[in-house]
Write a structure and sequence with these properties.
single chain; 138 residues; mainly beta; 9-stranded antiparallel sheet; elongated
């Protein structure tokens, strides 16, 4: 969850996304189809920056997302791809908003996906990865 680095060997980090002027978001969802064996897990993190935040994007830390769909999905074989949905929040409950400090919307974001496994021969594989930025509720 640090701004850079980390011990994970299998990770995917999107490039920094800049939303169009006037279209700042307040929430988002991450959708993916994945092979997830029983000995593995998929962790998703986000990093955001408001257009009003004087801090730099690189200084921001990643925040964990929670899985809101597919938490109990396990793949039986490598062709058994399952659907997963992640959102900001904890304990499989979405917050339906992103808020950090006094900011409730963001213009810039990055998503990091970490694929972990106790068996190096059975690691998660991801396809159909997509992120949808949603407008702020306030």
């Amino acid at each position: 969850d640090r701004s850079s680095g980390g011990p994970a060997y299998a990770r995917y980090i999107t490039r920094k996304v800049t939303l169009a002027d006037g279209l700042d978001a307040g929430d988002f969802r991450v959708f993916m189809t994945a092979y997830k064996p029983s000995n593995a897990n998929i962790y998703v993190y986000y990093k955001i920056l408001s257009s009003d935040d004087p801090d730099t994007f690189d200084n921001k830390s990643y925040q964990p997302m929670t899985i809101i769909q597919g938490a109990s999905n396990l793949s039986l074989n490598q062709d058994d791809m399952k659907e997963f949905v992640f959102a900001p929040g904890v304990d499989n409950i979405a917050d339906n908003r992103v808020q950090y400090g006094s900011f409730s919307s963001f213009k810039y974001f990055t998503i990091k996906v970490v694929m972990a496994s106790t068996d190096t021969t059975k690691v998660p594989r991801i396809r159909d990865f997509r992120v949808v930025a949603l407008p702020s509720l306030s």
